[in-house]
Protein: glucose-6-phosphate isomerase
Amino acid sequence: MIPDLILPPHVAWASVAFANGSVIHKATRVGDLNGVFSDVLAYQKRDPLDVVYHVEMLDSPADAGALYVGVTHLNAGKIGDEFFMTRGHFHKQREQGEVYFGLCGEGLLLLQSEQGNARLERVAPGSVHIIPPFTAHRLINTGPATLSSLAVWPSVAGHDYAALAEGFALRVFSSAHHSEGWEARHE
Structure:
């Protein structure tokens, strides 16, 4: 007897979107990110329906030991001089880590410990980022095109946005004075 051959979900490299499998889509708009950007006046002038990022996630079981897999597509743009970014979060179960894989675009991964120590990692096609336990994380798009990153994390991890109500210790702004085109500032 020959077993059935199953075609699993895969990432279509040309579009960096999932093909095959059941996919959940979620868009995060400017209006969903109140309090995230530092320039309040510039934020208030933006259309609250503009999409900042959207996530495609494989519909996976939420059982202990299971993994979620998703692709975040972070649009290029700024509010004031601050680049578009994801909301960022700790995991509710702090001991859970996560892995990001850069698919396309260019940007930064902001990592911050519970003690407020922050660092940046460059995200680009092919980059691999191991996010340790007890570490908050946020994607920042510093490039002219969409930044897409695939993530894998334990389904029991959860998201804790409230722990970052005061924001991250670092912010990233565009800057004509730096060769990278951006600069990081401590809050």
Observations:
- The domain at 10-186 is CATH 2.60.120.10 (Jelly Rolls).
- DSSP finds one helix and 15 strands in the chain.
- Helices lie at 40-45.
